[in-house]
Amino acid sequence: MKARTLWFLGAAAITAMPGTALAQTPEYPITLIAPGTANYTYPEGYQTPWDQVEIRVTEHMSPNLYVLHGSEGLDRNHPDGSGGRVMVLFGPDGVLMVDTQNRQVAEKTLAALRTFSDGPIKLLVNTHVHSDHTGANAFFARQGAVIFAQENLRLEIMRPGADPAHIPAATYRYDPAQPGEPAITFRMNGETVDFIPMMPSHTGGDTVVRFREADVIYIEDFYRNFGYPFADQRNGGSIQGMLEAVDLIYRLAGPNTTLVPGHGTLINKEDLLPYRAMIVDIMARVKALRDRGQSLDQVLAANLTAAYDATTLGNTDESRNRFITAVYDEVPGLPPIVDGRRTMPAR
Ligand SMILES: [Zn+2]
């Protein structure tokens, strides 16, 4: 932890003033606003009141690496904090953003960014296709950002009539021969930033973003600690792939590396282990029932997550059933990856 702040202040400043200087050195990460932890419920037909959602600076990861996140209690998809986290690296070389939040709050996301940087927005990377991470792409492209992502994400985001500014301009691919290798490395604002393409996991086009000096990795949504795991199988994701992603991050992260999920609380690599163990356990239980010929409805009724419900925040029926259904669909075996993509058979 200390080494990270020494880098920024300069070692000389610290050694010249032992004791007092160290006591005043901030320890990163600094959480300014923690995500919510309540049991949120919403009436049938509830619509997110976007005009009420606030976008705030919620964490400082280093003196010039901040996190933006939405307020709690309003967004049915993410009640602990609306939308997906945005990371912002800023300084004399301009702004690099990770993800863009929902389209409906684009102006508020920019306003939150402008509370600490007036620099040009130059680079933007999308961690995965979901609209809480890419919704304001076109808005930030018009601010000047060049959008980077996996080629698979570009294919996922293309829709007839889509705004061309919404679509990543610069793409790269995951190389199965070199998992964990950055596709692109940027050196700016005193940071070294790696865009690391992931195997098909949460979606078919995931990227994690590593900030080497801050010792931080944005790990997006294949890990979550609010609600049960979610693999977007329609976009090439899988629960099995998420396990592989967890294992890769466990290998890439150091003991003090802060891992920043798209939602929920910040973690360290050891926090991945109980999550991984839970997924492995549930997969084995679902497989045992499916192998005995049980239907999806029977498996859902077996309440296989009971042992985890008390310690899983946001453990709604919807979240639990979505997870169990994904596992049920996968246990007979995953289809092969063709051209970097995997297509699950439609239910
Ligand atoms: Zn997300």
What report would you give on this structure?
The protein is an alpha/beta fold and 347 residues long. It has 2 domains: 1-27, no CATH class; 32-271, 4-Layer Sandwich (Metallo-beta-lactamase, Chain A). It is built from 12 helices and 13 strands. The strands form 2 sheets. It has an 8-stranded mixed beta sheet. Strand 12, helix 8 and strand 13 (258-261) form a beta-alpha-beta unit. The radius of gyration is 20 Å and the shape is globular. The chain starts with a helix and ends in a 17-residue tail after the last helix. Bound molecules: zinc ion. Zinc ion (ZN) binds next to helix 5. Zinc ion is lined by residues 84, 130, 132-133, 221, 262-263.
Condensed summary:
The chain folds into two domains: 1-27, no CATH class; 32-271, Ribonuclease Z/Hydroxyacylglutathione hydrolase-like (Metallo-beta-lactamase, Chain A, 4-Layer Sandwich), CATH 3.60.15.
- Considering DSSP H and I runs of 4 or more, what fraction of the residues is helical? 25-40%
Ligand names:
zinc ion
Structural class category: alpha/beta
Q: What is the total number of structural domains?
A: 2
Mean of residue pLDDT values: 92
- What oligomerization state is this entry in? single chain
Question: Which short descriptors sum up this protein?
Answer:
347 residues; alpha/beta; Metallo-beta-lactamase, Chain A; 2 domains; eight-stranded mixed β-sheet; five-stranded mixed β-sheet; 13 strands; 29% helix; globular; disordered N terminus; binds zinc ion
List the helices and strands and how they pair.
Layout lengths: L1 H8 L1 H6 L3 H5 L5 E2 L23 E8 L2 E6 L15 E4 L5 E4 L7 H8 L7 E5 L5 H4 L2 H6 L3 E5 H7 L12 E3 L11 E5 L2 E7 L9 E5 L4 E5 L18 H14 L5 E4 L10 H20 L4 H6 L4 H4 L7 H14 L17
Helix pairs in contact: 8-9
This protein binds zinc ion.
Zinc ion binds next to helix 5.
